[in-house]
Write a structure and sequence with these properties.
The structure is a single chain. Helices cover about 50% and strands about 15% of the residues. The chain is of the alpha/beta class and about 240 residues long. The chain folds into 2 domains: about 150 residues, 3-Layer(aba) Sandwich (Rossmann fold); about 80 residues, Orthogonal Bundle (Helicase, Ruva Protein, domain 3), CATH 1.10.8.60. The strands form 2 sheets. It has a 5-stranded parallel β-sheet, sandwiched between helices. Strands 6-7 form a two-stranded parallel sheet. Helix 5 links the parallel strand 3 and strand 4. Helix 3 packs parallel to helix 4.
Length: about 240
């Protein structure tokens, strides 16, 4: 399987959102919500974008405190993290005011119940840096208890379920084995989440390699996925019938 990043419809829309957010006038709040169900490539897309742009990427975790969050951001800025929370915040503010960066916080759902999310609002207000809060499908509802934060949200973007075209694109760009159009159509109906698609393709490629198959069509895929790892019998029977 190829190590390739695939630009699905969601990815292209996310890229457009980030470009828009970075080019907003100074007097407009630059916060955005990005949310959606698991398995739709949110984290992969965000990390791919963050790695290629002037940005800070932090992944929240269960039990994260305000100081822990500040320390993670400070580390991304090469700032010391052994000060108290107030001093770490001041260093972050100073750094971002002199060298603005987009801040992306993934798994932000973990920061809501203990009001740690307010720390991010404070950083945004003091630095005016673009900030993207990323979470699960109920993120907007969960954040509704923070009207001062929601008032700063410029735009919300939901990662939608993959279309059949998205799935076919993912498979065709990741596969190291040629797959025909009807083969792609068949596979697009077998999985609809990114990890499922990768597992499916990995299985297909392994079975194809075992059987020295260089090209996969719908019929061959149906046989392979029905656990007939050795399809020489099938091919031989076809030849008998043809004779």
């Amino acid at each position: 399987m190829k190590n390739t990043f695939v630009k699905t419809k969601n990815t292209k829309q996310f890229i457009a959102l980030m470009e828009e957010l970075q080019n907003l006038p100074a007097n407009i709040p630059k916060m955005a919500l990005v949310y959606g169900d698991f398995g739709l490539g949110k984290s992969q897309t965000i990390q791919w974008w963050a790695f290629r742009n002037n940005s800070i990427y932090v992944r929240a975790t269960k039990g994260m405190t305000s100081k822990w969050l500040l320390a993670e951001i400070a580390e991304e800025l090469d700032e010391d993290t052994y000060w108290n929370s107030q001093e770490i915040f001041a260093n972050i503010e100073r750094n971002l005011q002199s060298n603005p960066k987009t801040i992306i916080v993934d798994e932000v759902d973990y920061l809501i119940d203990k009001k740690i999310i307010e720390t991010l609002r404070d950083i945004h207000d003091r630095t005016n840096c673009p900030m993207v809060l990323v979470g699960m499908k109920n993120l907007e509802r969960k954040l509704s208890r923070y009207p001062h934060l929601m008032d700063r949200i410029y735009k919300k973007f939901k990662f939608e379920k993959y279309t059949a075209e998205d799935i076919k694109l993912i498979i065709s760009e990741l596969s190291e084995i040629e797959i025909t159009a009807d083969g792609l159509e068949y596979l697009s109906k077998q999985a609809n989440q990114f990890r499922q698609i990768v597992k499916l393709l990995n299985k297909v490629e392994k079975l194809a390699n075992i059987n020295a198959i260089k090209k996969l069509d719908e019929n061959t895929l149906m046989e392979l996925l029905n656990e007939r790892a050795d399809i020489e019998t099938l091919q031989a029977s076809k030849q008998v019938l043809a004779g």
